[in-house]
Amino acid sequence: MPALMKVDAGSVVTITYDILDANGEIIESSDLSGPVSFLVGKGAIIKGLDKQVTGMEKGQEKSFELPPEEAFGRPEDGPTRELSRKDFPADAKLAKGERFEAGMGGGTKILLEVVESDDEKVTVRMIHPLAGQTLSMTINVVGVRAATAAEQEAGRAISAPPPPPPPPKKK
User: Mean pLDDT throughout 112-127?
Assistant: First the structure.
């Protein structure tokens, strides 16, 4: 029997996972969203996940903690973006430090913090809802493979859609 491929930078790994908060509550799970595949070494999912999964093989499970710097970062380190003042309601309070929730695609919410504003533009810091939190994670490696040339070039795993169902049988 050939040796199992170990996860390393440049490989594509598929994992199942549970992410827990400091109280041990599951806040995200592949039981709901399905397994996730990613190109190792790009920090594409959670920064510290690449380091934790490296060296594992298919079938292995691991539990670990990720400090904020290796998970979703610290709130003060979130990226900033300049928006037009017209993108906000006329009566919105846009003083430095004001925070509000904004909707993103797919029902995802993000916290926006005003860094500075004037009559024409507003600079906001985008803060992930889990920023600043130490998270616990349990992962199970369900697949490991070499990345394709297209994946290496794209810097991410590329999943093919499932095959179409077979045509109905003729009677």
Answer: 93
